[in-house]
Structures are given as structure tokens and as C-alpha cells.
Amino acid sequence: MDGGVTVITNPMVSVRLTSTLSSFEVVRRFNRGITIADLKNKLELVIGTPATCMDMQLFSVSDKFLQNLEDNEALLGSYPVDDDCRIHVIDRSGAQTGAFTNLSDVEKYEISDDAYEKRPDSVRAFMKKQKVGRFNEEEMARREAEQAQREAEENAAAAAITVGSRCKVHVPGQPTKLGTVMYVGTTEFKPGSWVGVKYDEPLGRHDGSVIGKRYFECQPKYGAFVKPLSVTVGDFPEEDFGLDEM
Description:
With 246 residues, the chain is α+β, with helices and mostly antiparallel strands. The chain is built from four helices and twelve strands. It has helices at residues 36-47, 113-118, 123-130, 137-159, and strands at 12-19, 22-31, 54-59, 65-68, 86-91, 166-169, 177-186, 193-199, 209-210, 213-214, 223-226, 231-233. Strands 2-1-5-3-4 form a five-stranded mixed beta sheet, with helices on one face. Strands 11-8-7-6-12 form a five-stranded antiparallel beta sheet. The chain has a two-stranded antiparallel sheet with strand order 9-10. Strand 3 (54-59) and strand 4 form a beta hairpin. The longest helix has 23 residues, at 137-159. The chain is elongated. It starts with 11 loop residues before the first strand and ends in a 13-residue tail after the last strand.
């Protein structure tokens, strides 16, 4: 029996990969028997840099620079590559400078509105021909009439609601809630008439303040704004939830 020592090297090596294109670090396993050229081809799918535009540097486990991987015909295993070493890819394609992603300097095609209006093959011409959207005068007139009627109904409903009234709020798709009317009128966050309500329970969205403007006072999560048609005023006494009972 031979008393010599046999050293077995793992044919696979796990390395960390970084590049000038990204701040992220990934880990991949490679066969030590592939050439540097083959390694570049594999890294093209990982890094995104064309193999012909790569320069590669080898760093130790402690991130100390070891050497450049310059010989495309050399085997990866011929370099001092160990598990957890880092291979850094330097992109020479120009992508890291934004040469192909910054479009601010690219000359853009522009056309005046009058010229676009006269084109028979434009999207606008197609929509006019098919009477789609705003080019359907009858449909637009119907929508405007419905909107006007809705606004009139909302305004009429708002006029019948007074601050301090007890109310029941029913918004489609939500449970019915009881509360007190705290505000009636227009707002800065959306057009139309709105009713500010302080709910009896913390089922609201705010404390009476929306986008920095205060409309009424209440505890956080007790306040909400709803459309007047969702509000019914009446004798709705506040429910006793037994909070004072032991």
C-alpha cells in the first residue's frame, strides 16, 4: 500500500459575482474545467454584458484583489479560484454610463396637433370614424346629462343634511355605519358636495383632516367623508357597546 497523500480537488467551485452594472451580488457554481471564454458566455446571461465586452477580476474570499482573468483560453481552474471568491465583471459596452438608456439626447419625432388632425391613419382618425369615446357625441351628451342630474341630486341631498344630526351611512359594498354629521359642503380634495361623518366606532379613515386641511374634529380612525346620497339622517341613537362595564 502506498503511504503517499492524494489531494482531491472539487471539480466545481462556488463564486460570488459582482459587476459595474449592478450593486447586487449573486452566487453561482461553475466547473473548474471550463475556459475563461466559456465562463464569459455563461456570465452574459447573468450579468447582462456581452461576452466580448467583459473584463474580469478575481478577488479572494476576503475581497483582496488577486489578478485579472485575461486569458480566454485558460481554464478557470488554472487560476487560484476557491469557494466564496469573488469575480468582478467590468462592462465595456457603455451600458453603465447610460449611453443606451438615457434618451434625453435622442432626437424625437414631433408633429403639430393640426398636422396630426389631418392624418387619415391616426388613432384619432380611427376613433372619430368609429365614434369612440369623446368622439361619440350622443354618448358624451348622455354622460354629461347623467352627471348633471347626479350632481343636482347630491346637492339637494346635501341641503337637507345639517351638522350635528345623527345619521346612518350606507356605501355600496360596505357595512352600514352609524355616526354624527360633522361637516357638509365642498372640499379641496375632490369636487362636489361631501358629508363629513364621525362614526360611533373606529371604522373611518382619519380624524377629520384630509391632505393637511382640517374639516372637523374627531378621534383618529373615526372620521370619514361620504357622498350625500349615502347618508340618511334620523333618530339613530348611539349604540352602547358596553365599554363602561366590567
